[in-house]
Each structure stands twice: as structure tokens, then as C-alpha cells.
């Protein structure tokens, strides 16, 4: 009887040991996958260090866009104290088409006797001025070359405050440089009724003007234009760090296409300023210019413009772009909410001036 009990206990012990061994083996196979493929167990399996997480990089975006951003050198002759003085201006440009049309800022090449474009691949080419638009400070150049890199473009790139942006250009002639920031504000009005700029904190210096502002995918969203300036206590003009501007792509592309086709760009204006109220739909009229087309048509401050020619309005960029695209003399019908009532206002488009 005693021997039978001992045998039973022994069998139970062996069974438990086998079960425990199977459990441990299964755990090892789960934790050490190499053993499942018969590759053996290397000595450093349990001393293995975890691989570093993938780093955040905008290399792919820059690889797509930077080859299309060029250096621009323009030479001019100024008269200083009855003497001729040669000056060279520095800027950047963006290759927009495979046929060699470039966009840059007008102030970069204004009064230039000659303009040279330096490509990222080392080529230096003379450029011809196709035309310019003072109101947007844009100029279109043309170069003759093969195998040009063209900046990635989409018809209406979405630009939101907080989006990551990259500014590409040749600041201070140190070579192509990338600065990174975010969109601080989209739709910043610089001149009444027309010029809607992208505000960013991506650093710009002399030489960045005319370069590309791209999103995190490398798609062009703007042409870098200006730094914010103010007056110090002694009334001297100074730059303000962290506030920089770019002209939106949709406007820049339209101006370029009109200059190529017609030799100049035209811009309509209605003579009002507007803003966005998150609590209401449409564009809130914040100011009406005295003697302008909007005042003559009867538009009033605090009116809410819901649509233009039955196109519903959602953003300032969309609104002012629609107006700017309109031809002077064209009639636009505005659907307006005034004190809770819907009225219709017909406005004759005027010519925007600098």
C-alpha cells in the first residue's frame, strides 16, 4: 500500500514537471523567435539592446523640392554722387515649369541690367525677364536649359495654422539652406482688400526672397517674400525676429500664368476688409473703404458675406482670391446677411492698385 502511494506521488511529480517544462519551452519560443526557425540561440540574445526609434526627418520633402530652388544674382548700375556704381542683388527663385519659367520677387531683380540663375547642380544660366507684378511683388523669369527640376505643385494646397513648413533659399549667399517652422497664421492682410500672405516663423534672411516655402511633403505652398519690420525708439527701421511672410501658391501661380499669357496680371478689388468669426458662416466685413466699389454698392460694416456669385465662402484666402481674379468692370452678386436678414448686393469690380 505504501509503495502504491509513493508510485502515485512520483507520477504526479513527473507529470507536473513535464507540464512545467512544456510551459517554459513555449514561453522561450515566444520570447526568442530565432529558436522557432532553427537558427540556434546566439550568445547575445538576452543581452540584446532595443533598436532606436525611427527619427523624424524632412529629408524626403527636401529631396523633392530643393533641386527646383535656384540662386538669383542681378547686376545693376546706380548713380551715386555723379558716379556709376555697380551693384549686385541676391535672391532666390523657384522653377515652376519644365520649359524654364521661374518665379521670384520683383524687388530682387528690379532695375537689373542682367540676371544670372545658379542651379543646384552647378549650372549658371542667363535669365530673361518675362514680366512682373508690383502689387504682388512677383516677377517671372525664363531660362533655356534641359533636365530642369520642377517644384512639386498641387492646385489648391491646404494651409493651416500649425502646419510644419520649410523655407528653401540662399540666405546671405552662403548656399542653399533649409529653415523649418510652422504656419503662424494664414490669410494675413498686408494691404486692404487684396494681399493675403502666409505668416510663418521659418527664418528668412537677405537672399531668401523669391525662394520656396514648402509643406512637410515638399509641395510648394508659397513664395518667400518679406520679414516683418517696425520702428525702434529712434524711429529706425528694424527687422522683427520670428515673423516672416510668403505669398500663397494659388495667387503666385495665377499671376505667373497671366504674365506669361498676357504680359501682365490684373487684380480686381471691392474696397472692403474682412475677417473670420468662428461662430458664424461667411466673411464678416470689418471695414468699408470710402468711395470704393463696396461702399457705392451699399455694403456696410458688420455685414456677413455668405457667397459671391452663388459660391459659398469659407476662408479669407478663397474670398480675396475670387475677387482678385475678377476683371475690373465685372459685376459680382454678393449674398449678404445683415441683422439676420438675407439681402443681395451687386458690386462693380474695381482695379486694385499698389
Automatic annotation (TrEMBL):
The keyword Transmembrane helix applies. Keywords: Hydrolase, Membrane, Protease, Serine protease, Transmembrane, Transmembrane helix. It holds the Pfam family Trypsin_2. InterPro entries: PDZ, PDZ_sf, Peptidase_S1_PA, Peptidase_S1_PA_chymotrypsin, Peptidase_S1C. Residues 259-338 form the PDZ domain. It comes from the Bacteria. The chain crosses the membrane at residues 13-32. Belongs to the peptidase S1C family. This is Outer membrane-stress sensor serine endopeptidase DegS. The gene is degS.
Amino acid at each position: 500500500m505504501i509503495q502504491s502511494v509513493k508510485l502515485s506521488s512520483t507520477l504526479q511529480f513527473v507529470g507536473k514537471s513535464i507540464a512545467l517544462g512544456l510551459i517554459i519551452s513555449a514561453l522561450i519560443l515566444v520570447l526568442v523567435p530565432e529558436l522557432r526557425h532553427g537558427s540556434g540561440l546566439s550568445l547575445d540574445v538576452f543581452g540584446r539592446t532595443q533598436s532606436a526609434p525611427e527619427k523624424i526627418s524632412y529629408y524626403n520633402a527636401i529631396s523633392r523640392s530643393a533641386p527646383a530652388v535656384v540662386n538669383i544674382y542681378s547686376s545693376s548700375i546706380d548713380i551715386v554722387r555723379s558716379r556709376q556704381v555697380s551693384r549686385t542683388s541676391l535672391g532666390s527663385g523657384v522653377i515652376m515649369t519644365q520649359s524654364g519659367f521661374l518665379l521670384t520677387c520683383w524687388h530682387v531683380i528690379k532695375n537689373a541690367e542682367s540676371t544670372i540663375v545658379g542651379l543646384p547642380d552647378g549650372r549658371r544660366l542667363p535669365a530673361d525677364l518675362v514680366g512682373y507684378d508690383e502689387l504682388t511683388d512677383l516677377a517671372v523669369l525664363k531660362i533655356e536649359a534641359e533636365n530642369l527640376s520642377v517644384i512639386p505643385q498641387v492646385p489648391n494646397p491646404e494651409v493651416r495654422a500649425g502646419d510644419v513648413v520649410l523655407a528653401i533659399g540662399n540666405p546671405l549667399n552662403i548656399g542653399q539652406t533649409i529653415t523649418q517652422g510652422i504656419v503662424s497664421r494664414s490669410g494675413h492682410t498686408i494691404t486692404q482688400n487684396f494681399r493675403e500672405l502666409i505668416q510663418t516663423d521659418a527664418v528668412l534672411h537677405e537672399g531668401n526672397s523669391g525662394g520656396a516655402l514648402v509643406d512637410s511633403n515638399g509641395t510648394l505652398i508659397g513664395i518667400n517674400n518679406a520679414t516683418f519690420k517696425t520702428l525702434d525708439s529712434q524711429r529706425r527701421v528694424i527687422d522683427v525676429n520670428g515673423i516672416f511672410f510668403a505669398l500663397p501658391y494659388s495667387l503666385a501661380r495665377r499671376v505667373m500664368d497671366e504674365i506669361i499669357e498676357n504680359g501682365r496680371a490684373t487684380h480686381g478689388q471691392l474696397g472692403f476688409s474682412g475677417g473670420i468669426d468662428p461662430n458664424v458662416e461667411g466673411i464678416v466685413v470689418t471695414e468699408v473703404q470710402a468711395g470704393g466699389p463696396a461702399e457705392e454698392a451699399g455694403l456696410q460694416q458688420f455685414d456677413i458675406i455668405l457667397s459671391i456669385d452663388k459660391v459659398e465662402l469659407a476662408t479669407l484666402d478663397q474670398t480675396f482670391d475670387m475677387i482678385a481674379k475678377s476683371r475690373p468692370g465685372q459685376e459680382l452678386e454678393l449674398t449678404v446677411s445683415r441683422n439676420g436678414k438675407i439681402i443681395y448686393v451687386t458690386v462693380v469690380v474695381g482695379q486694385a492698385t499698389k
